Amino acid sequence: MFADLLIILACSLLVIALFRRLRLPPVLGYLCVGLLVGPAALDWIGSARDLPRLAELGVVFLLFSLGLEFSLPRMLALRRTVFGLGSLQVALCGSVLGVLLYLGGVAPTSAAVLGLGLALSSTAIVGKELVSLGEVFSGHGQNAMGVLLFQDLVAVLLLTLVPAIAGHGGEPWYLAIPLTLGKTVLLFLGLLLASRWLLPKLFHEVAQAHSAELFVMLALVIVLLTAWLTHMLGLSMALGAFLAGMLLGESHYRHQVEADIRPFRDILLGLFFVCVGMLIDLKLFAEQGWAILGATLLLLALKGGLVAVLVKVRGESGETAWRSGLALAQAGEFFFALVALMRQQQMLEAPLAGLLLAAAFCSMALTPLLLRAAPQLAARLRRTPGRESHLEEIASHSAELQGHAVICGYGRVGQSIGRFLQREGQVFVALDDDPVRVEEASAGESNVHYGDSRRRDLLEAVGISRARLLVVAVDKTDVALAIVEQVRLHCADLPILVRTRDDSRLAELQAAGASEVVPEVLESSLMLASHALVMLGIPQQRVQQHLDEVRGNRYRLLHGFYHGAQANLVDAQGQPRVLLHAVNLPQNAHACGRCPTDMQLEALGLEVQAVRRDGVDLPMEQRPQLREGDTVLLSGPLQAIEAGEARLLGGD
């Protein structure tokens, strides 16, 4: 047992480090470790009986963490997606996949359970990729997160009901399932009473002791105790852990408990996936490679296509439909737990289990690559000749504009410039080639359009010939240079302000026709230097003269610096980004009829930037009452925005 754990942990250390370099999910790394050290490959792990039992605790801790993250207000805010699209997706995909398995010779009960298991997607992979790609608030991102939330509930139910469905207790399944559900309700009520009366006092006493050791110990005892109680009742240990986490998720100690549990969860869950990887026979890829490939492609195409059809039927755009299907097309980590449990209950034969696990593994391995390629594919589709109607729509929006400003690049800098222009009542039109950013901004602003700012027809559509100013705020200097050159061919007198990161290509931009070039790093250095001089007692007038002189000399004083060992000296890793998010209030939203200041959004770390009604900003000092169709612009960290949206839509 000790030697097996040492081998697994050492191999996991190397493989997970490699996967992080490749930006691949750790789940796939643990599965690969299981494949390599298992009996089908290197055969470094013996037949340790206690290893699967220890690995099962990984699922228990996973479900406990899932319960901590479970948010009833968030579920209510996304209720149409969670219960509408989520239930339809699970029912439709589960039914189709179950029928296919039944036609393939699987027993009806096992086929139904496996079909529902394959209908579930990977919360770990999809959630991580959507966050890293900045697509959480996009249309397909919201669809994926809402459906995954419903799938998590189904996963807990499946893991709980499999022993009852197997019928090893002597009762028929139609009696065992109601009995199991009844026990679950009693367990929930008991844990609810404990979470209301006992746990707060325990956590309060431990918190008063200021002992991290006691806090971790209490959290571990709660997880293991609830898992043991459910096991004694004949239920899944994972169910008790999920219910305990869900009830603790509403307490003030949620984040501390989650932080304390995470190391144990990650290691034990990794051990579980290693054990699952050992179940996959590596020889299958050589002997049944085409069958695994066919099953993988069938799973991805079937689930992705069905999800896309469901989203399209709901009235959403084609791009949102196919990207939602792409995000939910793979199998999930719960399927591995389900197959392992079904093997224990003798509901599934080893050859079929190996084939399904191999196909599920391949679908999960392909998902990060597909999700990362989706933005480029969407951008190409947007540039196809068939999108002329999009160009005409932009031209119609800008037809009556005269003397406006055009902002190319609506990232952090472009948005900052736009806010100052709005404050002064200056009209502007913004272009950006990030479809997710444009979709997010368009929810609250009608003057932000998608497109490549280097295109002449797009610049003409936004009325560049009638504009009074062009601001180039794109992040890439090559793109900025191309924009300036394109504009100067047709608008010789138009003032052009260009933002760059540094002064490396300042001369090229000026030669191309830029009126003013502002190097971002140098300007921030200049402002810091001016503050330092003022704090040292230098008169403000003299400091301003220095600033004017440096800017007049094109930052020559600041050119060049000593390069250190770090490649990026202005990296702000670890600091949460402040995002801007528009919340559109539907009918029966919790915030309707209330004033934004009464929603206590500031307590969540949010700031209400504006409230728009029919495209017009409402004066906040008059305490406007929110209505259906209003747009509330929130700014703050990602987690705070999620909580704020849940409060606006579903209440506390």
Description:
With 652 residues, the chain is of the alpha/beta class. The strands form 2 sheets. A 6-stranded parallel sheet has the order 3-2-1-4-5-6, with helices on both faces. Strands 7-10-8-9 form a 4-stranded antiparallel sheet, with helices on one face. Helix 24 links the parallel strand 5 and strand 6. It is globular and about 85 Å long. Helix 2 packs parallel to helix 13, helix 8 runs parallel beside helix 16 and helix 9 packs parallel to helix 12. It has 3 domains: 377 residues, Na+/H+ antiporter like fold; 129 residues, Rossmann fold (3-Layer(aba) Sandwich); 72 residues, Alpha-Beta Plaits (2-Layer Sandwich). It is built from 27 helices and 10 strands.
Count of alpha and pi helical runs: 27
Structural class by SSE content: alpha/beta
Q: Based on the coordinates given, report the CATH architecture of the largest domain.
A: Up-down Bundle
Low-confidence stretches: 385-389, 562-574
Instruction: Supply the CATH class of the largest domain.
Output: Mainly Alpha
Radius of gyration: 29 Å
Tell how many strands the DSSP assignment holds.
10
Strand order of the largest sheet: 3-2-1-4-5-6
Question: Strand content of the residues, in percent?
Answer: 5-15%
Compute the separation of the termini in Å: 48 Å
Largest sheet: 6 strands, parallel
Q: Would you tell me which CATH topology of the largest domain applies?
A: Na+/H+ antiporter like fold
The number of distinct structural domains comes to 3
**Mean pLDDT value:** 80
As a percent range, the share of helical residues equals 55-70%
Shape: globular
